[in-house]
Specification:
Blueprint: H1 2-18, H2 26-44, H3 67-76, H4 92-104, H5 117-125, E1 135-136, E2 139-140, H6 150-153, H7 156-164, E3 176-181, E4 186-194, E5 198-202, E6 208-212, E7 216-222, H8 236-248
Antiparallel strand pairs: 1-2, 3-4, 3-7, 4-5, 5-6
This protein binds heme C (2 copies).
């Protein structure tokens, strides 16, 4: 009997943990917002709209859509990603307040474009030749960011501007670097790592280059993307098809 009672208590505690105990408290999201600004905004953006980390206003999440999934992502981090674990720095109450904040910014308006996913997939691998630089589910090349989960991580607006005007918002970690060598030859590529002494980059053929600063004339970051602008390449319907395809990329981990 005693053992049964303990088991019931444990079960009850676990169940209480699966939904946000502060869900009905309007203050919780507000205090969560302040913590978010300090700890999370550098990666997720000041209004949670995304940056280095995914857009959290989309209202659905790769880690799962339940309160406990969001709690777990914040407390334990997302293994194999840049998302840190906060469980040892924040108590349960503070984590639930962050969950409340994340819920409060969800838009829930499923984004759609009047395009056709299958036609967009053809544009991606065919006319657009996007696979020359991007990977989707293991297919393609790793010069630019992996797009396997682009539809979960990015908003329609972000995806559209990435394709139409790549220079406007360069994905962190994928900037362009230009190296002028002592023989006058220049090499441009996507930055892989850069510090005071050396630079590693990948050129558009997918080849790695590594330079030590003292062996070259200059190493400079450039404010343009190596991704070509597709602003005038596609018709409006091709663009809609392509965006529908990108939004459909929800990956699986
Ligand atoms: C160093 C950058 C960084 C910081 C700081 C950071 N995150 Fe993240 N976060 C990420 C990345 C990257 C992911 C995507 C992980 C993945 O699925 O690959 C992520 C994922 C998440 C997810 C899951 C989203 C989804 O769709 O599955 C939540 C929720 C989240 N972060 C909340 C937070 C909160 C709250 C904070 C502050 C306490 C925070 N993050 C701080 C980078 C960061
Ligand atoms: C020559 C290489 C190249 C080609 C071809 C290319 N891209 Fe890119 N793409 C990049 C690079 C490099 C970046 C990162 C810099 C930036 O943000 O522009 C990028 C960034 C992106 C991003 C933003 C990803 C993120 O999560 O921030 C999207 C979306 C994207 N590309 C889609 C496409 C699509 C769709 C096509 C085909 C129509 C395409 N790209 C063709 C190199 C390329």
């Amino acid at each position: 009997m005693f053992r049964l009672t303990i088991a019931l208590i444990i079960a009850a505690t676990c169940r209480a943990q699966s939904t946000n105990p502060l869900a009905g408290d309007p203050q919780a999201a507000e205090t969560g917002r302040w913590t978010f600004r300090i700890l999370c905004a550098p990666c997720h953006g000041i209004h949670a709209g995304g940056g280095r980390g995914p857009d959290l206003t989309r209202g659905n999440y790769s880690v799962g859509d339940r309160d406990q999934d969001l709690y777990g992502a914040i407390a334990r981090g997302v293994p194999g990603s840049e998302m840190p674990a906060y469980g040892d720095r924040l108590n349960a109450d503070a984590v639930w307040r962050l969950v409340s904040y994340v819920r409060s910014v969800a838009r829930h308006d499923a984004e759609t474009v009047p395009g056709d996913v299958a036609a967009g997939e053809k544009v991606f691998w065919g006319k657009g030749a996007c696979g020359q630089c991007h990977r989707v589910g293991g297919k393609g090349s790793g010069i630019g960011p992996d797009l396997t989960r682009a539809g979960r991580q990015r908003s329609l607006k972000y995806l559209r501007s990435s394709v139409m005007t790549p220079d406007s918002d360069i994905t962190p970690g994928y900037g362009t670097v230009k190296v002028v060598q002592k023989d006058g030859k220049t090499i441009s590529g996507v930055e892989r790592s850069i510090d005071n002494f050396s630079v590693q980059l990948m050129d558009l053929s997918g080849k790695y280059h590594s330079f030590v600063r003292e062996d070259v004339i200059s190493i400079a970051r450039e404010s343009r993307s190596l991704m070509p602008s597709y602003g005038t390449v596609f018709s409006e319907s091709e663009m809609n098809d392509l965006l529908a395809y990108l939004l459909s990329l929800r990956g699986s981990r």
